[in-house]
Amino acid sequence: MGWFSQDIATMDDLFQHTLEDIYYAEHQIEKALPEMIRKASDPELKKGFQTHLKQTKGHIKRLDQAFKKLKLKPRGTKCPAIEGIIEEANEIAGEVSDKVVLNAALIGAAQAVEHYEITRYGTLLAWSKALGRKDVGRLFQANLKEEKATDKKLNGIAKRKINKKAVARKPKQANKLQQQRMQDVMAQATTGVPTL
Ligand SMILES: [Fe+2]
Ligand SMILES: [Fe+2]
């Protein structure tokens, strides 16, 4: 079902589509988190990701209950937004060579995921109220609360230590050489004279 296609005619259709979207997203997040746990070298961050993996499994269970209450079969619909966010997270994590800087990158990537989930649950909560389904809304509210708490927790870890530690890291010798080469290339591009 694509956005703006003829498949979505009513508010009920739109509501169902968005529920299927977050269902798909939560499953993708469940798959992505173990790798983030593995890559995090800060024990507090690692534990935070582990806790959120458990919570994510709970989010999926609540969504299963929402489908059941709505008398719908639980199913996901491909969500390009979460795929893009996770793909970008994997890319950046693969490019960061310093494990302390990597912790900062992981927090930034995880917060992008949390913010996506927050927008989806906020919308679903508002629509469930508008459609007179406060019973289902309570399930979204519970997930939303945990996503917001996770975002806040990540902010706390970043501000309290990870960002400071990452900023204090000195570039390794290899990185220095790489930077020097880059500067040489830039100088050559500007002056047209090769640097010896
Ligand atoms: Fe979630
Ligand atoms: Fe989350």
Q: Would you kindly provide a brief summary of this structure?
A:
With 196 residues, this protein is mainly α. It has helices at residues 11-39, 43-69, 80-95, 99-130, 134-168, 173-191. The chain has one domain: Ferritin (Up-down Bundle).
Task: Give the helix/strand layout.
Blueprint: H1 11-39, H2 43-69, H3 80-95, H4 99-130, H5 134-168, H6 173-191
Helix pairs in contact: 1-2, 1-3, 1-4, 2-5, 3-4, 4-5
The chain binds fe (ii) ion (2 copies).
CATH topology: Ferritin
The total number of structural domains is: 1
The number of helices is: 6
How would a crystallographer describe the biggest sheet?
none
Count of beta strands: 0
- The shape, in one word, is elongated
State the helicity in percent bands.
Answer: over 70%
Write down the secondary-structure element order. Answer: HHHHHH
CATH-level-4 superfamily name: Ferritin, core subunit, four-helix bundle
Class from helix and strand fractions: mainly alpha
Please provide a written account of the structure.
This protein is 81% helix and 0% strand. It is mainly alpha-helical. The protein has a single domain, classed as Up-down Bundle (Ferritin). Bound molecules: fe (ii) ion (FE2) (2 copies). The site of one fe (ii) ion has 7 residues, from helix 1, helix 2 and helix 5.
Please give a handful of descriptors for the protein shown.
196 residues; mainly alpha; elongated
